[in-house]
Design a protein that fits this description.
Elements lengths: L4 E8 L2 E6 L2 E5 L7 E4 L5 E3 L7 H4 L4 E3 L11 H6 L6 E3 L1 H7 L3 E3 L5 E5 L5 E8 L8 H4 L3 E6 L7 E3 L7 H9 L4 E5 L15 H10 L4 E5 L11 H10 L15 E4 L1
Parallel strand pairs: 3-6, 6-7, 7-8, 12-13, 13-14
Antiparallel strand pairs: 1-2, 1-15, 2-3, 4-5, 9-10, 10-11, 11-12
């Protein structure tokens, strides 16, 4: 087993296969084909399908589901595959809706994931706010996740669908992950306000996690995403921070070593 690197494979949108030391996790499962899925009150129109199928990904040890009530984070095919996964970590409200083997975590609550092969990871839920102040009654609760090896959050921080705010800043004060996986794209599904991070938020994250490598996802595949990965990379380059951002391509494993 290798504990000196982490492999991330972008399936599409917010869906990433995480592989570390024999543990295989998937974030926010989305596997539906392109198409218009919902017109109101939120416009969900998908422009590209998954880079890999559920079958191609193979067995998983768990799913990290930031929220279950938006189609761009859990679509029909993604929901159908959840019963085949040993455990689904999500929000407390999501546990009540999904039932089965879903485990709802409050922000900063930690559980230990143990696999049949004897590997383990610490899974901690992290605060997230899916847009401006007051949006929660409309958009519902969301969480991110921090994964730890020796202590909580020392491996990977998955922001989930959130803007940068005092909750995400608290994550940076508590944890020192090797890698930070940001949901970017400056999503605008409801109006002219962001429900996920844009360049400004991503730059705040780079400042708050000075020793972490940043990877940006959830910035392609849906009509409501307003900022591409290339636009984000251009902004980082303009600010002299290009080396902080690791490029990730759909379907191609990204190996991050330290």
């Amino acid at each position: 087993m290798n504990r000196d690197h982490l492999t991330l494979t972008l399936i599409g949108g917010p869906t990433v296969l995480i592989e570390f030391d024999g543990v295989r996790l998937l974030t926010d499962p989305t596997f539906d084909p392109p198409g218009l899925y919902q017109k109101t009150p939120v416009h969900f129109e998908k422009t590209s399908g998954p880079a890999l199928s559920v079958e191609a990904i193979g067995p998983l040890d768990g799913v990290l589901l930031g929220h279950d009530h938006h189609l761009d984070n859990l679509d029909h095919a993604g929901r159908a595959m959840l019963p085949s996964v040993p455990v689904v970590y999500t929000t407390v409200a999501g546990e009540g809706r999904l039932k089965g083997h879903a485990v709802g975590l409050a922000p900063f609550e930690t559980r230990t994931l143990r696999t049949h092969a004897g590997a383990s990871l610490l899974v901690t839920a992290t605060p997230a706010r899916h847009g401006p102040v007051g949006i929660e009654p409309i958009s519902g609760d969301v969480v991110g996740f921090a994964l730890g090896v020796d202590q909580p959050g020392d491996l990977l921080y998955v922001s989930g669908d959130t803007v940068w705010y005092e909750g995400t800043a608290e994550v940076a004060r508590r944890f020192s992950p090797k890698v930070v996986l940001l949901h970017t794209g400056a999503a605008e599904p409801r109006g002219r306000f962001h429900m996920t991070m844009g360049s400004e938020d991503a730059l705040e994250a780079a400042r708050a996690f000075p020793d972490s490598r940043l990877v940006a996802i959830h910035n392609e595949g849906w009509v409501h995403l307003r900022e591409s990965q290339q636009q984000l990379a251009d902004t980082f380059a303009m600010m002299g921070a290009a080396e902080r951002l690791a490029a990730i391509e759909r379907g191609r494993p990204l190996r991050l070593a330290w």
